[in-house]
Amino acid sequence: MKNTNALIIIAKFPDADTVKTRLRGKLSDEQRLELYISMLENTVNKLKTIPGVDTFIAYAPSGARTYFSHFGTRLISLDTRDLGINMFNAFKEVFGSGYKKACLVGTDIPDLTGRIILEAFRILNRKDLVFGPASDGGYYLVGMRKLVREIFANVPWSSDQTLEKSLHQAEKFTYTVGFSKTLSDVDTLEDVSNLGLLRN
Q1: pLDDT tens per residue across span 60-105
Q2: CB hemisphere CA count around 49 (13 angstroms)
Q3: How far apart are CA 72 and CA 89, in angstroms?
Q4: pTM of the model
Q5: How many CA atoms lie within 13 A of 105 on its CB side?
Q6: Which of 5, 75, 147, 200 is the most buried (most CB within 10 A)?
Q7: Who's near 113: CB < 8 A, 6+ residues apart?
């Protein structure tokens, strides 16, 4: 029988114009692509075989299916550049397929593990929503046990207020919220250097 938990890894096709753009001018295009591909492959390979969880890659642009098919996961095509809409549509897809709980993560959290994902699903046994806070004020994980649209509305993405605004929306609409552990994502040259993510 199909698992009832779905994990969504949201990803972009490796293109120097769209990935790790905050590092433009600090790393070469080749380095940014190398960094992104390394983190993408590491994330998918760590998380695609979690017991009791079906893993999806939700990818953009929609024409990149051939590239992402080599990872051997289920795939969801995304067709806008709006992160909030893309995340909502990915959740809508898995809930529409019959999954009872779903979590979504990005590809730039080197310390993310299957154990953390399983803990997030356990939190959803008693909470409507779960967030994995990132140390910069955003979040690396969001999960829900029913389709929720409101937490993706009126949120400034990629800012130090992303989590705060999402929590405000959750409170406004009376959803219960739990948290997994705080982790660091990779957005700055210092992050890259501290984690030793690029070859010298």
Answers
A1: 998 999 999 999 999 999 987 888 999 999 999 999 999 999 999 9
A2: 5
A3: 21
A4: 0.92
A5: 31
A6: 5
A7: 46
